[in-house]
Structure prediction request, 381 residues.
Amino acid sequence: MLDQQPESDRLCSTDSTPPHEPQFDSSRSDSGTRRKRITSAALVLGLTAGSCGLLSASAYRLGRNTESDLRFLEPRRPPTVDEAVIALPIEYALRSDERNDVIFLGDSACRCGIDPVEFTRSTGLRAYNLGSQGRAGPMALVLTAKAYLLRHPPPRIVVLCVSPIGWDISTDRRDAGMRARLLANYGPEVEGLVPWNERVSYFIKRGSLAASAARSVLFAGPPHDVRDFPLVGLEEDTYRTLERRTRESRGYGRLPGLHHAKEPGLERKGEPVTVPDAWDRGVRLLAETCHAMGIPLLVRFSPMPGECARMRDFSPVEKWAQTLESSCSGVIVGRPTLLWYDWKLCWDAFHLNAEGTAKYTQAVAVELRSALVATGRSTQN
Prediction:
């Protein structure tokens, strides 16, 4: 028949796909490949996230369960004497529960200028010196006070003893990292000072550092505790021996010798002494903490060499003290606000020597008795 196409023509037609064989859909194949890739990537991300979560949780537990002083100190090097001096008052506040009638807070002028043992002999009031260093920052005062009041019977009075120029010279930005580490490490022991996310982040970091340090000594002999290393800057002591001596002296750190400097001197001569806003806020928060517990706060500026009175303008400090006393309930400012001692009683422009400490301790004892009487608190045990 004329309309019937030959077999050879049908085999050479443009439609070469066999009549019963399905056509290949490349777009469907590409879509399936993409789904497989996405599924594999999601699986990898999930496993990675899970692994990171487990590692973070392990690091957090390790950091949180590490002793607080060991966690504060760097794990791969000996601690410095400054780190030890800053940590020890907070450690006492956290780990002790003994009763004290008086606690002293402040910078190194407090730590090296008031002898609690002699104070107790003079007054019959049990005392402990929680002085640290100005470079620890204002929140260290608040942290130490809160930690102490949380774990001890309330004292009859809290004394804040600081150098008149201590805050003015303790604003070095190089200390910012140490201050942040101090607050992050000890802040979680006290409610309200450190946000939870910063707390978690810090413990993960310290736990990771501790794990790394532990692995690094596996092939170098038994692990070492940095608290047993000689202190940088005070090689005759370790952290633990200094802690023991500090407890025995009730927190007092006597300075060696008579004078550290040949003569008294100050930087920024002719300039007014300032009270930075951060320190003003810190002292006010300390005052609020004491007031909330019904404890009076005595603010006492430590003595300086008389020669320094003419080197700078100290009137801003006196004005600040007056404003603080009038605006904060329960705050008593020692009078006279500024004390000037003979150079023979001073170790340098900021600290007292042993003879100066003896005189100042007795002066504080007399002032404190008056403050207790004025607030209706007995000076008798």
User: Anything to note?
Assistant: Confidence is low (pLDDT under 50) at residues 1-17, 217-221. The CA atoms of residues 79 and 231 lie 6 Å apart. The beta strands are 102-106, 127-129, 157-162, 230-231, 234-238, 297-301, 304-305, 331-333, 340-341. DSSP finds 13 helices and nine strands in the chain.
